[in-house]
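User: I'm new to structure prediction. If I give you an amino acid sequence, what do you actually give back? Let's try with this one:
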Amino acid sequence: MMAAAILSNCSRSSIFKFSLFSAFRTYASASNVLINDAKYSWLKDLGLSADNPGVYHGKWSGTGEVITSYCPANGEAIANCTQASLSDYHEAVKATVKAWDVWADMPAPHRGEIVRQIADALREKIDLLGNLVSLEMGKIAAEGKGEVQEYVDICDYAVGLSRMYAGKVIPSERPGHALLEMWNPLGAIGIISAFNFPVAVFGWNNALAMVTGNTMLWKGAPTTPLTSIAVTKILASVLEKNSLPGAICSLACGGADIGDAMSKDESLKLLSFTGSTQVRVYG
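Assistant: Good question. You get back a string of structure tokens that encode the predicted 3D arrangement of the chain. For your 283 residues, that looks like this:
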């Protein structure tokens, strides 16, 4: 909420400059981060701490560079994140591919039930997540909460879709035969999301990919790692509660090296990305 109040007096250009700065700040001591301030203790209710592993595929880890997430409104350090190394990334992809064997075999309506539970879990944390988006990304708190609502809405849509998408029965030229058309999941996919919509863009991809039987590896923007971690903790809790592999929804926080690896990885059958013009030209 503090970020929202400060941002109301900031110009768009100043917000943008702070965002650029945040990517190049040095690692902050755990004793000097906002999460340890009583005013920001609510961050711990999202499962965050002063130092956070940024890799998840059924277990939390991270052996890459340690970065600090900064509030663009006041330039203060929020918390730290240990990003994925390339070794961490390959381990996560392997687990994501393996989890597909379990997830794809589950009937679509049952997958929809898991997504319904994810929507409920997001509703329970909607204010906290919205405030985190505001604090870490810089948009006002109402828009941060709106982003989480976008995720909830697409989950609700995906739940209905899980009982509706169907193939066709097509007449055959051969007597006594018919052609059956059915949808099949792609497999493990990759999702790269941008800093300005750190929840919604992933949510749009995640909910639909899940009900159609795909597993996924997510790389969020390096300036909003805490949001990626908090969302993944919610997903992990739902999957764990249902005795499903956490690697159905894997996470690898990182920079260009991880994005480059994803773009070249043939284990990922589809890559969804949202980013800059430079990223589009590269793609």
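You can read the tokens as a compact description of the fold. Here is one thing that stands out. The mean pLDDT is 90.
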